[in-house]
Specification:
The chain is built from two helices and eight strands. The protein has an eight-stranded mixed β-sheet, with no helix packed on it. β2 and β3 form a beta hairpin.
Amino acid sequence: MKRWMTLAALLAVFGLVSVSEAKEKGTHAPHGKIVSVSPDSADPTTMSIVVSVGGKKNPHDVTVTANKTTVVTVDGQAAQLSDLKAGEFVMLASESGLQDKLDVSTKPHHAKAKKDGDSTAKSAAPAAK
């Protein structure tokens, strides 16, 4: 009986660890569409960026900030905060506060991933017999 209790306890612990790891793997960086970019009223060297996030299930706007230390890329190329435009798509580090990095794309991120996935799937296809 003692062995069964020990085994049950171990299975419960491993089950909880697996669930927490799955939740961590399921998390991803918030992303969305830039609504506006403007200088912060308190500090003109800091930009205030409003981003629409949450997709169709939970749409809402968040406001984040970026400054001269923020690393900005647009379509994979180094860029400046002044290059950001409403309508572009951005990956955020978090849904609030100062961003240390902004990955911006002129195309939706899901479209890019789908396109990359399609080309990988075709190249991985088995050769015809």
